[in-house]
């Protein structure tokens, strides 16, 4: 029985998703409604919830900074997500007043950048991929390593 080529299916899904998201963003960017583009919504969320830029940074570290031979450290990812999530919940529940310096550091342009940059090494070290296995096609013979 022939195996289903999930690599081709994944590529098609990625391309359809990318084209669909770009198409939608162009459509909403040309209408009269303010704040409805993907980037505007993502930035709005990212300035309120640190988990979003952390997740994006972790994904970027995983995808574009592969760690050969690394071991998965899901416990590290879970711990960081819990800590950042607790911070987000506390900030939302208590809405504690902050001094001027803290407000400046957490400004919309800086606050998302800190968890985003922290997520990149997190994705690299805690969620490695092995490039040899990742680039090997399902119908290729196994590589000797």
Write a compact overview of the structure shown:
The chain has 145 residues and is mainly alpha-helical. It has helices at residues 6-29, 38-46, 51-64, 74-94, 100-105, 113-126, 131-135.
Description:
Helices cover 64% and strands 0% of the residues. The protein folds into 2 domains: 34 residues, no CATH class; 99 residues, no CATH class. With 145 residues, it is mostly helical. The longest helix is centred in the N-terminal third of the chain and has 24 residues.
pLDDT < 50 runs, ≥5 residues: none
Beta-strand residue fraction: under 5%
Share in helix: 55-70%
Let me know the average pLDDT: 77
Structural classification:
mainly alpha
Task: Spell out the key features of this protein.
145 residues, mainly alpha, flat
Write the layout of secondary structure elements.
Blueprint: H1 6-29, H2 38-46, H3 51-64, H4 74-94, H5 100-105, H6 113-126, H7 131-135
């Amino acid at each position: 029985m022939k195996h289903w080529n999930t690599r081709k299916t994944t590529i098609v899904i990625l391309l359809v998703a990318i084209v669909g998201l770009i198409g939608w963003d162009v459509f909403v960017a040309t209408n009269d409604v303010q704040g409805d583009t993907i980037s505007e919504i993502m930035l709005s969320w990212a300035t309120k919830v640190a988990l979003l830029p952390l997740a994006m940074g972790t994904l970027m570290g995983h995808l574009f900074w592969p760690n050969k031979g690394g071991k998965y450290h899901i416990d590290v990812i879970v711990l960081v997500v819990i800590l950042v999530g607790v911070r987000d919940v506390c900030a939302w529940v208590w809405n504690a007043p902050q001094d001027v310096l803290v407000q400046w550091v957490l400004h919309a342009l800086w606050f998302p950048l800190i968890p985003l940059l922290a997520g990149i090494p997190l994705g690299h070290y805690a969620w490695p991929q092995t490039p040899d296995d990742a680039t090997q096609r399902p119908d290729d013979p196994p590589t000797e390593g």
